[in-house]
Specification:
The protein contains 17 helices and 13 strands. By secondary structure, it is of the alpha/beta class. It folds into three domains: 84 residues, no CATH class; 242 residues, TIM Barrel; 84 residues, no CATH class. It is globular and about 55 Å long. Bound molecules: pyridoxal-5'-phosphate and iron/sulfur cluster.
Length: 441
């Protein structure tokens, strides 16, 4: 089941015509993909409209703005495929396909060559997008990686050469962590995945990598990867080998709802993975229609800790794609976080958030406060382009409706304390980019 193709699963055939039409229309703009595990084991079809996993996977009419919906529907009705494609492309460009200046600011270069499969935003941690991991077992309707799945090649991060990666890491000893991401790196076949990991196992190279993280939704969407798949045992053996080599190996597991943690398959997968010695840390954005309820989060964290997983981040949904459908105002997000956090024991409180991955860094909403007469929102960086920004509280004017950093204004100053430095970084990046292009041309 992929973008633009109508899903053939019998459950989907039983949906009312309007719902099926909406899947088709919206699926032509936002990528759509589902697998049998998700459809058969995670969705309650008797109440599909309110089912969080249904909304996580299946597009519905409200995920496009009414104008975009009508445009796409009309284009499909003409029966002209090229026209429909062009309309879909136009709409996508209006959905902020590349939030948080990822292209301009985060892509490094070596010897004047851009390493488009890498993002280096925070000093210690490098994001690596292996080219064979740029798809997923199923697609989430909220996903900010969606441009990678729909063939918008000009913004597709992919890198074929692990060699270049190692060279970069050798030249950057400050990088201790590498985070394999995608899509989902756990979509890869074993032999391909192994190619990427191999350089870190033999210690011949001179990188300073101490932790390998794998950002993955496989436990939520395809736990069989580690239980009954043909290659499950090979993956587990490799994980064990990585751990034994002295590298800290962590699964950054994406779970959006506690129901993903309740099947026998996911229990077994987590148990087998933990047996290799790797850690499982968990994260999710806060999403309206899916998990905008403190009880859901408290249950999710408890369920995770009970299965020996470590809650890590609660994110604010990014300002991209079907943002209007999923967004939760920052103040409400903080209330949900706090109400959930109050209900759980200290073991669950390893989680941090709610956090926005914005252009300057990961900004946590600490909450509402009063300074003198003024009501403010207290914020702080959990992670920043300049490590020096981290951990320092700063204040925005209180705003009940703001849903992203760009909606906020500073409480006491002309601009936020990091603004001038960020502008300098931007200017420098633009200059470097110009130089890089000059060398390639
Ligand atoms: C979140 C993130 C990381 C990892 O940050 P940690 O705080 O170490 O988990 C690295 N790079 C980017 C671009 C990120 O958004
Ligand atoms: S699993 Fe992650 S990368 Fe894949 S579609 Fe869902 S949110 Fe996006």
């Amino acid at each position: 089941m992929v973008a633009g193709q109508f899903p053939k699963h019998p459950q989907v055939g039983l949906l009312p015509e309007a719902a099926r039409n909406a899947i088709e229309v919206v699926g032509n703009v936002l990528p759509f993909k589902a697998n049998n595990y998700v459809v058969d084991e995670l969705i309650d079809w008797s109440n599909y409209e309110n089912d969080p996993i249904f909304n996580l996977i299946f597009p519905n009419r409200d995920m496009l703005l009414p104008g975009h919906y009508q445009e796409m529907e009309a284009a499909l009705q003409t029966g002209d495929r090229n026209h429909a494609k062009a309309v879909s492309h136009q709409i996508r460009l209006q959905l902020n396909p590349h939030p948080a200046a990822q292209v301009e600011l985060n892509v490094p270069s070596i010897d004047g060559v851009k390493l488009t499969g890498i993002q280096h935003k925070y000093r210690e941690t490098l994001l690596f997008f292996p080219s064979s991991g740029q798809t997923c077992h199923s697609y989430c309707t909220f996903c900010f990686r969606w441009p990678q799945f729909v063939g918008m090649n000009e913004i597709k991060f992919a890198m074929r050469e692990t060699e270049l990666l190692v060279r970069y890491l050798e030249a950057h000893q400050e990088v201790t962590d590498i985070l394999f991401t995608g899509g989902d790196p756990m979509i890869m076949k074993f032999e391909v995945f192994k190619q990427y990991i191999a350089p870190f196992l033999d210690r011949k190279n001179k990188t300073n990598i101490q932790s390998i993280r794998i950002g993955t939704k496989s436990l939520g969407f395809w736990p069989y990867k580690f239980t009954m798949d043909e290659e499950a045992d090979k993956f587990l053996e490799l994980f064990e080998e990585i751990v034994k080599s002295g590298i800290n190996l962590a699964f950054m597991a994406h779970f959006n709802h506690p129901s993903e943690l309740r099947t026998p398959a996911v229990h077994e997968a987590i148990r087998r993975l933990r047996n290799t010695g790797l850690q499982i840390r968990t994260q999710s954005p806060l999403l309206r229609h899916i998990n905008d309820d403190p009880i859901v989060w408290a249950e999710m964290w408890r369920e995770q800790v009970n299965q020996n997983c470590i809650p890590y981040y609660m994110f604010i949904a990014r300002n991209t794609g079907a943002k209007h459908y999923f967004e939760v105002p920052l103040v409400r997000a903080w209330q949900i976080f706090r109400e959930a956090y109050q209900q759980v024991s200290g073991l669950c409180r390893t989680v941090r958030g709610p956090s926005m991955s914005a252009t300057p860094g990961k900004i946590q909403i600490l909450g509402e406060a009063s300074v003198g007469e003024e009501k403010v929102l207290a914020l702080r960086f959990l992670q920043a382009r300049n490590p020096n920004w981290v951990g320092r509280p700063f204040f925005a004017k209180f705003d009940k409706t703001a849903s992203w950093l760009t909606d906020l204004s500073p409480a006491f100053d002309e601009e936020f304390f990091y603004a001038a430095e960020l502008r300098e970084m931007y200017a420098e990046a633009m200059l470097n980019q110009a130089n890089t292009n000059a060398i390639i041309n």
